[in-house]
Design a protein that fits this description.
The structure is a single chain. The chain is an alpha+beta fold and 280 residues long. The protein is 54% helix and 15% strand. Strands 3, 4, 5, 6 and 7 form a five-stranded antiparallel beta sheet that branches. Helix 6 crosses helix 10. It is flat. It starts with a helix and ends in an 8-residue tail after the last helix. 11% of the residues are buried.
């Protein structure tokens, strides 16, 4: 059995078929159980990018075996289960509920989310300002990651601190040619922990933010961090950082009334058009 799974996976990775009938090969079918077919694309979707061939083989073998067993069990159960009518009723009820839910969510996104104005967000923020205390540090600034042997690195030490337009332009040109990565968050607040995880020492104390200009290095790279603004836990969360959260709250507040009005309108329209008939 392992030989079969290995053959299937190697064929998959090599992008050629697995002894399939011509009509099945065109669809990428790699396993057939009764009338059910497992396709190459479905198997590939369950193997993460970057997984080694050895690990991919294990994942593929486990997935295929599980898929086959599931199909076999379903076929047996389908023939022998006693309360088929009740199951069909439950399935239909679930299907109806799922379709209604998806449609309602679609309508909310189209009709409610897009109607939330910046004025409403600001009004909610101001009225509930005491509820917006930060539990994480926030920062604004830039972070450069440059190879330790990059040319003119001493100039970078000056440019990344400067506010002069000519120095900013020089740094921009240098970044294009030499930087491994460049994070520019000087116009938006970002969680300090996200930035800290990109540094070689991610155990830095939050008090280091007071230094404003931070330079670190490991065996391969230099890291230049310019902290232009920061807020510590316990500070008031900025409105721009809280905006998405507030928008979600406002959408949920309007959602119930919107859906209720929609249901009432559907009912009244159906009643007027004679779609609803009450039996005496």
């Amino acid at each position: 059995m392992k030989v079969i799974f290995a053959f299937i996976l190697l064929s998959l990775l090599a992008f050629f078929g697995c002894n399939q009938k011509p009509e099945e090969a065109g669809k990428g079918v790699i396993v057939t159980v009764n009338n059910s077919k497992l396709t190459k694309s479905e198997l590939e979707a369950n193997i993460q990018d970057g997984t080694s061939k050895e690990d991919s083989l294990i994942v593929a073998e486990n997935y295929i075996r599980s898929w086959v067993q599931d199909i076999l069990m379903y076929d047996v159960a389908k023939q022998n289960v006693a309360d088929k009518a009740e199951i069909e009723k439950l399935v239909e009820n679930y299907r109806r509920s799922l379709i209604i839910y998806r449609y309602q969510e679609q309508l909310v996104q189209e009709k409610v989310s897009k109607t939330i104005s910046q004025e409403e967000i600001s009004k909610y923020y101001k009225e509930n300002i005491n509820n917006f205390d930060l539990d994480v540090p926030l920062v604004k600034g830039i972070l450069l990651k440059i190879p330790i042997n990059a040319p003119q690195i001493n100039y970078v030490r000056e440019w990344y601190k400067s506010k002069k337009q000519q120095d900013i332009e020089k740094l921009d040109k240098y970044i294009v040619k030499n930087a491994v990565s460049y994070d520019d968050f000087h116009e938006r607040w970002i969680d300090w922990n996200i930035i800290k995880d990109k540094l070689p020492n991610n155990n830095l104390d939050v008090n280091i933010l007071e230094k404003k200009f931070i330079e670190l290095q490991d065996s391969s790279f230099c890291y230049f961090l310019n902290i232009q603004s920061f807020l510590l836990p316990g500070s008031t969360e900025p409105e721009e950082y809280a905006e998405n959260y507030i928008r979600e709250i406002l959408v949920n507040q309007k959602k119930a009334n919107f859906l209720k009005n929609m249901e009432n309108d559907l009912y009244e329209n159906a009643l007027k058009k004679g779609k609803i008939k009450f039996q005496n």
